[in-house]
Amino acid sequence: xxxxxxxxxxxxxxxxxxxTGYIVGKLNHVDIRNYGSGNIGTTNTFRTLGKKAGAITYxxxxxxxxxxxLVARLVIFRDEPYAELLGLYVGLGVAIGHNFPFWLHFKGxxxxxVTSGVMAAHDPLAIPLYIAAFVLSVAxxxxxxxxxxxxxxxxxxxxxxxxxxxxxxxxxxxxxxxxMGLAYFRHKQNIIRIKNGIENKIGQKVTVAKDDGKGQDA
Length: 218
Prior knowledge:
By secondary structure, the protein is mainly alpha-helical. It has ten helices and two strands.
């Protein structure tokens, strides 16, 4: 099983290194890393390039998690009793690859879009809960980062409640906690900015300078 876990992580990492936000930025003649937060995720793409680019980035990041996960679980390992767990490991590999892509010097996104795809693929029944929690959190606080951290916190709670008694439950729960920990680690600067009252609120844009290739928060 250890070999298969490693294989799933490596395969997932490869998919995660498909940096959608960076690609979308380049198609718009912009290096997304030079603007806003500097990461290549959905939120920064949305703020820098607008709704269409942000939506494309989100769909791409979700798809690169869900597709290999579902293929692993429903096709490659469909006869294995721990197929669902291996699917989660593929998703974890995708999140790591997204956050730390080797070809971009390990500077990627924060993994929330990817993790949302993982959560949806793991249990579609939880999707309405995740959406409601995210929307409510952002509506109340005006911080996308808060909504992001709320849903990744709900992930292991959902597994603890709904998957209790399932084969490899403890292992699955631990992996979900790793997802949560990774998200909090990647959002540590956001948490600091929230505490200091300087975190960007939803709707704030980034000014794209066409002359010097550098940007600043609007």
